[in-house]
Amino acid sequence: MEKEKQKRLEAKGYKIGSAANFLGLNREEEEYIELKLALGETLAKQRKQKNLTQIQLAKLLKSSQSRIAKMENGDPTVSLDLLVKSLLAIGATKESIAKAFH
Amino acid sequence: MEKEKQKRLEAKGYKIGSAANFLGLNREEEEYIELKLALGETLAKQRKQKNLTQIQLAKLLKSSQSRIAKMENGDPTVSLDLLVKSLLAIGATKESIAKAFH
DNA sequence: TGACAATATATCATATCTGACATAATTATC
DNA sequence: GATAATTATGTCAGATATGATATATTGTCA
């Protein structure tokens, strides 16, 4: 992983706790975070495709604008559950969600 | 969704709260649950491929036997995060995880 | 530039998830 | 079919995620 990305992640509040590789992420941790970032990007993309603001989407999902922003930006307090449920709720296909894993 | 599956899910403790379709699941709810079941099956499959008991896997993942069982059976208290993190930790490929979505 | 809309970040009380433990149910081996 | 091994289920205290709210930052357009 390049330094830029790591700084970005650390800035976002990710605490990297890896016994084997201090100051870095091990494979699982990295893949997990990449996954959340990819899902967040997918959510943002779909929202914009529908010409919705974060506030409007928040209403649809019965969530809040701040949480939408956090989802879209890979905030560490956001779960995969919330991301996947949100994507399913706005009609994203399972395929498009699966792509985040590829 | 056929009745058998619904009974299975309700028996497992899923509370179906759907305004549009009482006594049933709406599309998102159904897809979300199917997803967890698919990931749980993947986990069980991979564990057996490695000839591990749930206790052994629990030690590897720093979890507990009961939680492994719950993961493998789609218990409603198990999050996608835990499932995905566990799969990544035992070396499941992103591809094999993505398949659960297809 | 300033004003306004949109997005990002911080914090918190409540809700949900977690490992651990106890114990029940099932399955394998003799 | 008894015993042991494995898996499933119930419960709970502590940990983590959640929507809400406040506020900061960024973008846009006159």
In short:
Chain A is mostly helical and 102 residues long. Helix content of chain A is 63%, strand content 0%.
Report what the structure shows.
Two copies of one chain form a homodimer. By secondary structure, the first copy, chain A, is mostly helical. The first copy, chain A, has a single domain, classed as Orthogonal Bundle (434 Repressor (Amino-terminal Domain)), CATH 1.10.260. The first copy, chain A, is 63% helix and 0% strand. Chain A has helices at 3-11, 27-49, 54-61, 65-72, 80-89, 94-99. In chain A, helix 2 (27-49) runs parallel beside helix 5 and helix 3 packs across helix 4. Chains A and B meet through helix 2, helix 5 and helix 6 of A and helix 2, helix 5 and helix 6 of B. Chain A binds a DNA duplex (30 and 30 nucleotides) through helix 3 and helix 4.
Structural class label of chain A: mainly alpha
What pattern of helices and strands is seen along the backbone of chain A?
HHHHHH
- Beta content of chain A: under 5%
Name of the CATH architecture of chain A: Orthogonal Bundle
> What CATH first level of chain A would be assigned?
Mainly Alpha
Topology of this protein?
The structure is a homodimer of 102-residue chains.
Chain A: H1 3-11, H2 27-49, H3 54-61, H4 65-72, H5 80-89, H6 94-99
Helix pairs in contact in A: 2-5, 3-4
Chain A binds a DNA duplex (30 and 30 nucleotides) through residues 53-55, 58, 62-70, 72-73, 75, 77-79, 81-82.
